[in-house]
Structures are given as structure tokens and as C-alpha cells.
Here is the input.
Amino acid sequence: MKPTLLILAAGMGSRYGGLKQMDELGPSGESIIDYSIYDAIQAGFGKVVFVIRESFYEPFKERFEPRLKGRIETVYVFQDLDKIPTGYSVPEGREKPWGTGHAMLMAKNVINEHFAVINADDFYGRDAYMQAFYFIKSCKSENEYAMIGYALKNTLSEYGTVSRGICEVDAANNMTGVIERTKIGYEGGKIYFYEDDKKTELTGNEPVSMNCWVFNPSFLNALDEGFEQFLKVRGAEMKSEFYFNIQANNMVTEQKATVKVLNTDTKWFGVTYREDRPLVQQSINNLVEAGVYPQNLWK
Here is the structure.
């Protein structure tokens, strides 16, 4: 059975100033999602599941159905605040979504095979999907997961500091922990993380998570249980979020699962702010000019 690509695309893009998931960045009007799906198809994926808001459905269907028909199966699921377990309620006045873990759970009833999960507005590169596909083919246990690890130096911004989860691994390249560094940037051509009044130099080769993971569908059951526990403890908070990677990390700590870090040399890029747009466009154009992608993906 071919694996599935799960795309988390329910964000409103408030910092970007529009529906950035649909923004035309490629030479023939392609969005980052187009490149992600194209790469997944090339790698051997057989289905794409979009997690979106219901109000996005018509624009998404109008855009992607003509492009993807006959190439890959498409499914749409909707993330809504009130889609939570029986016995719980949304705090009055809460508008913020419940987070990436909740978004993934929206797809629980439509995924019965191994899957990779990605953010809609991040470019991961074909190597990520190839590595994910081959990892799935080699899996021997339902509790073997994987994460695509990007070299820190390939994820930084020239315009300021970033926050990154730096992965610690054992001799077999299985994740043993993630250290959150909230302020990493360039200074004098070197990379540092800043904490209080101190700065510590990094090599730039440290593997970091950019939210590209591979799971067995049984992970969704564990995620379901984790979300219920989250609601018991933090469900009354107005801005609390439930992240799927925290659930995976907890399972590693409890020795209920392993996460293989699959390192890639690909340069990651994404759109968070409108100011990111020109750099992303240039990065895509460079890949097209280098022959990595055709001028028109779906022609």
C-alpha cells in the first residue's frame, strides 16, 4: 500500500496577510504545496490528505483537483475548534486552533497506512520524501517513526534569529531528545544561540526538526489519548496548543517508540511573513533553472 502525505493547511496566515497556502510562487503559478505534492508523487506516495478549514474547501478543490486528477488520490478533512472528545468544551472566547496534534487527528478516519506529515507553507525538497518512502518500506514495527533532520545552517534566516528544536541522537541515529533553542542566528559569519547574556557557538550541522515526520497510523490512536490528557490539564486555557511532536517525544522518553532521524542536506525554506516571499520565489526559480523541476509542474 502506497503511503499518504498529510498536509497541515488550516492556518489563516494572519502574519502573512492572506491565504499563504495558495500563494503563487513558482514560475507557472505553483504554490509550495504544489512542489510538496509533486515531490511526494515522484517518491511513490499514493494519497494526499489536506487538513483545512471548511471555508478553504472550495478554493482548495478548485485549485488542486484539476492538477492532481489521475496523479494522486485527494482527501479533504476539516479542522474546527469544536471537534474535540465528548465531555469537553471549547472555552468561551477561544479562537486559536488546538495545534498540530489536533490538526492531525482530523485525518484519523481517513488514514490506514504509513504517512508523512508536513506543514503546508514549508518547502522540504524531494530528498525528504524519498527518505520517508524508503524508511516506510524498511519498517518492521508499528512503533518505528522517523523525522527528517535538516542541518541547522540550512534552516536559518539572514534577517534575524530563529527558534529551532535541535535533535540529540544515539549511535543508531535514533532521537534521544530535543533541545529547544529560541534564539539562533548569524554573527560575524558564525552561528550562535543566545541565552540570557551568553552566546554559544554552534557548528551549523546539528540536525533540527522542521515538522516533517513519518508515522504508522497507530500513532493517531496514541495521539488521541494524548489529546484527551491535554484537554484535562490545559483545555481551559485560551491559547494552549497540542503539538504532535511533543506526543512523539513523550513516547520516545517512555520507550514506547523510536524516532529515526533521517538527515538531509536539502535547504529548507518557508513563508511566515510577506517579506519571505521574494526569497522563496528566488529559491524556487533557482531549482527550476537547475533542472530540478520543470517550468510548469503539471503540464
About this structure: The two ends are 27 Å apart (CA to CA). The chain has one domain: 4-148+208-289.
